[in-house]
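Write out a record, fold above all:
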Amino acid sequence: MAKTYQEINRKIEAGEAVVLTAEEVSLMAEEYSAAEIAEKVDVVTTATFGPMCSSGAFINFGHPNPPMRMERLTLNGVEAYGGIAAADAYIGATQESEKDPTYGGAHVIEDLIAGKDVELRASAKGTDCYPRKTLKATINKDTVNEMVLHNPRNAYQNYPAATNSTPDKKYTYMGILKPKYGNVTYSTSGELSPLLNDPELRTIGIGTRIFLGGAQGYVTWNGTQFRTRTVKNEHGVPILQSATLTVTGDMKKMDPDFIKAAYYKKYGVSMFVGIGVPIPILDEDIAKRVSIRNKEIDTYVRDYGLPGSPVLATVNYEQLQSGKIILNGETVSTQPMSSLKKARQIAKILKEQILSGDFKLSEAVQSFPSDQELKSLQAED
């Protein structure tokens, strides 16, 4: 019999809900059918902790005296975008410092979450209502009005593994790729990954409450580069990059343990983001989806050393997480770019929050597009 969000939330309030992590329910599926799981389990928690370059934060500094319409500004030497209001700015995670390319927007965001002081410098032409032309100030999370994490593209539904066929080492956002197929890197938490447990996006949409960076946040739109027209395997799981999420949350409530800046040699700055998504077990179909195992989730291995990153092979996450795969008849080591240990921690924390009644499920107010392709930019030069 189908359940509703309201029924599950009442069970959470009463302390009667049965909550498992995605890994726990996958083990349960070895003994129980999807129908039995749907009857016994109310919520499954999913999680990921990996580099998500398309991230950033809105900050409102408050007005100085005399007031200023900030036009060009930096935070700890990292350029932020001030073209949205007099005292508002958006800082992107991958923006690099003017003086130190190993420090960027992600580091500023992590510093602010940790309660550290950050230097603000701003300039403007000056106007009758905003006469100030220059500003230097120290800010932190207690002095600003708001600091809101707003990430346009997080939690990819799947992502290809990377290798390099060329004789030269390659420095990429997928890490350092050794010459001549020397290694394979990947960046998805497999059977714990949120959108792989709900591939049809039946329970995830605009308004879904999530764990975001150690606090409660929300899915606020489909992510950029979102697509649903994609290749799927026999288990109905997308093999290519498919759905993504736009996520938003209060940075003042976040924990630097779950938002971590990173620098990739000869590539640049990125940011590790911790996301956990609870999936309500509304019916047998969803119970079947969340019971998926790593061996049933496929992805491509692409050659990042060649133009267009051609596909070399198809592998599953059981193989990738084993530490080695067979590629072109040879054994090649694999390394994760995301942290499975951290993802497990997030899934467990979210499970405990739901069991304690501190985290309620929210039904999406709008579903994502169901038939969307991914467009590419056609360069003119």
